[in-house]
Amino acid sequence: MNNDTGLRKNTLGLFSLVFFVVAAASPLTGVVGGLPVAIISGNGGGIPVFYILSCVILMLFAVGFIVMSRHVNNAGAFYTYIAKGLGDNWGASASVLALMAYFSIQIAIVAMLGFFTQLFLEEHLSTHIPWWALSMLFAVIAWVLGIKRVEVGGKLLGVLMLAEVAIVLLTDVMLLVKKTGPYTFQSFEPSVFMQGNLGIAFIFTIASFIGFESTAIYAEECPRSAEPVPRAHDLRSAADHRLFLLYQLVAGASVWF
């Protein structure tokens, strides 16, 4: 009788893992969903400074996170780390809090996906499908992919992730090309980035990097000898942080002032 309850070994390589974790962050979702709220309800044109601050904080956190990932090989990730460091009660509390947060965010993202798909179909195909029906369809598709072999989802996510990164980069180029006036960097002046609701600005800039911690979730499915989790975390951090910072620098210099 096999009592091994772990996940299937050696099913994810380095690049599949990178695709998974970058897709979890979903740079395009951060730009379309999180950034507008951070600008409108946060500190307006000073938001690039808070993205830089968020990157610095997360990179400092990543130092300890990567070290722990080399010693704890468990799909529980944060729950397991906290349980080993502070005890099972704290670990269980963290897992419940994380579950509630992820569930709430998932509802918001699926609803947003349905809403924007409805707008796209109405504008380009003159077809009206309720956003909630589209959201349910996407939820079913995600469920089907979720019960398939993990590498299948990894390949699909790779294609989708490359597409959304291309969209963000294309937006950067168009912002620079379409700029009519001079480029400015007023976003980095204290009188600009210290105004407004700084708490909301910080919350949504940090939230734009959601999935930052997800590399450790797939530790059991990776070849341990290659240490793909720390490497994937480094690659993911470098790619995601640079993409957001590039967008913020371009937008701050060419759009907001």
From TrEMBL:
<feature type="transmembrane region" description="Helical">
    <location>
        <begin position="12"/>
        <end position="37"/>
    </location>
</feature>
<dbReference type="GO" id="GO:0016020">
    <property type="term" value="C:membrane"/>
</dbReference>
<feature type="domain" description="Amino acid permease/ SLC12A">
    <location>
        <begin position="29"/>
        <end position="232"/>
    </location>
</feature>
<feature type="transmembrane region" description="Helical">
    <location>
        <begin position="90"/>
        <end position="117"/>
    </location>
</feature>
<protein>
    <submittedName>
        <fullName>Amino acid permease</fullName>
    </submittedName>
</protein>
<dbReference type="InterPro" id="IPR050367">
    <property type="entry name" value="APC_superfamily"/>
</dbReference>
<feature type="transmembrane region" description="Helical">
    <location>
        <begin position="129"/>
        <end position="147"/>
    </location>
</feature>
<feature type="transmembrane region" description="Helical">
    <location>
        <begin position="156"/>
        <end position="177"/>
    </location>
</feature>
<dbReference type="Pfam" id="PF00324">
    <property type="entry name" value="AA_permease"/>
</dbReference>
<feature type="transmembrane region" description="Helical">
    <location>
        <begin position="197"/>
        <end position="219"/>
    </location>
</feature>
<keyword id="KW-1133">Transmembrane helix</keyword>
<dbReference type="InterPro" id="IPR004841">
    <property type="entry name" value="AA-permease/SLC12A_dom"/>
</dbReference>
<keyword id="KW-0812">Transmembrane</keyword>
<dbReference type="GO" id="GO:0055085">
    <property type="term" value="P:transmembrane transport"/>
</dbReference>
<keyword id="KW-0472">Membrane</keyword>
<feature type="transmembrane region" description="Helical">
    <location>
        <begin position="49"/>
        <end position="69"/>
    </location>
</feature>
